[in-house]
Amino acid sequence: MNYKIRDISFAEQGRSQLEWAEKHMPALLSIQKDLEREKPLKGVKIAAVLHVTKETGVLMKTLRLAGAEIALAASNPLSTQDDVAAALVKFHDVSVFAWKGENEKEYYSNIEALLDTNPEIVMDDGGDLHAYIHERGISNVIGGTEETTTGVVRLKAMEEQGILKYPVIAVNNAFTKYLFDNRYGTGQSAIDGILRATNILIAGKVCVVVGYGWVGRGIASRLRGLGGRVIVVEANPLRALEALMEGFVVTNMKEASKIGDIFVTATGNIRVISTEHIMNMKDGAILSNAGHFNVEIDVEGLRKIAKSSRIIRPFTEEITLPNGNKVYLLADGRLVNLAAGEGHPSEVMDLSFSNQALSVVYLHKSKSKLSPKVYDVPSEIDERVARLKLSSMGIEIEQLTEEQIEYSKQWKYGT
Asked: According to the annotation, is 148 in a ligand binding site?
């Protein structure tokens, strides 16, 4: 088995991490038992570009028990947990090509190593693997999944341009993914990453959240819950209106840049915090990103204008501006929750990765029936995941009577 990781001797600690995650992922473990018994993926080759965390480790173990052969690389150069990578190699026969702190060349070299395994199904987080496959004209892939908003946007663009070569399940679009992972997962873990990097007090700080999608909603809500005075910057008028009605101050980046203490980007777009905005910021402003790629803050432009910089704490870089003010860039502008923290809590990834596991099985079973398009997760999978999670929490929900089911289908009865 080929692999390239930091250090195989980390494997025992990684196994403990996987055990801890498993205790908090009961829905996926329930699915794992079924898949281990049925072996629906026996002999299927899978290539996955995902954050190599303990939660991803549980997903990889699940797919291995379902019979799949797996090669795994990281979807972010700073998101790999090296002990988990070692445990997957040593104890679960997963070919891992990932370590924390990869440079750009190593990152793409690891993706290329996955494709040397000739995968039939690919799993991606952000779209880099899908794009790489299409750019190189690889033709043996029968289908794939996509974990996050950024990747789904890229795949939709490929579909609209008529270049998408295989069906992709947009796992991000499942209700049990984006309503929970994006909002509660990133909402909590982004702040966790900021606090691990800085150990600052949120209460009383002016916190600027750039973007009010599901990720931005979660971050804004939790910053407010910690006592932050939250400002939302949003270009979409409907989302801006919603943020306003939720009680947040809403303004543009030009004005917000002058008064913010902490900035968190969550847009999926480029240079939403520009060097012009940074030059407006007060001394001591903190810059962080919760979007998938490190393009939301103009890090390259910031480095060009910087008088000096130094690492003052792990994942915290102090940068002196031409006017003498200092700003603090967290995690090099990359995903702060995964670079400076551990990513989402296991409980919320239980939902996302249950969708991933079932979607891969669905893809394999439906490979001859699906055309090259982006598909939502089938509603029966979404509902199954929700029911499994509720059951694991000891929650019993209401059951409709036959009369109620029939009533909901009719159109004749009114007042």
From this structure: yes
Helix residue ranges per DSSP H, 69-148: 82-92, 104-115, 128-135
CATH class of 8-177+344-392: alpha beta
Instruction: Give the Cα separation of 76 and 286 in Å (integer).
Output: 22
Q: Which CATH superfamily is domain 184-339 in?
A: NAD(P)-binding Rossmann-like Domain (3.40.50.720)
CA-based nearest residue to 152, from 367, 375, 382 = 375
Residue in this structure with the two tokens 């910690």, named with its chain if needed: 226
Is residue 92 a known part of a binding site?
Answer: no
Element of type H or E holding 143: strand 143-146
Per-residue pLDDT of 125-139, as tens digits, reads: 999 999 999 999 998
Cα 22 to Cα 27, 228, 249: the distances in Å are: 10, 33, 40
The reply to whether domains 8-177+344-392 and 184-339 share a CATH topology is yes
212 in a labelled binding site: yes
Name the strands in the sheet holding 45-49, side by side, starting at the edge strand that comes first in the sequence.
95-97, 69-73, 45-49, 121-124, 143-146, 168-170, 374-376
CA distance 265 to 288: 7
Is 355 known as a binding-site position? no
Q: Is 170 part of any known ligand binding site?
A: no
Q: What is the pTM of this model?
A: 0.93
Confirm whether residue 147 is marked as ligand binding: yes
Q: Over the stretch 40-50, which tens digit does the pLDDT of each residue have?
A: 999 999 999 99
CA–CA dist 109, 107 (Å, integer): 6
pLDDT digits (tens, 9 = 90+) for 5-28: 999 999 999 999 999 999 999 999
Token representation of residue 178: 């984006």
- Domains of the chain, residue spans: 8-177+344-392, 184-339
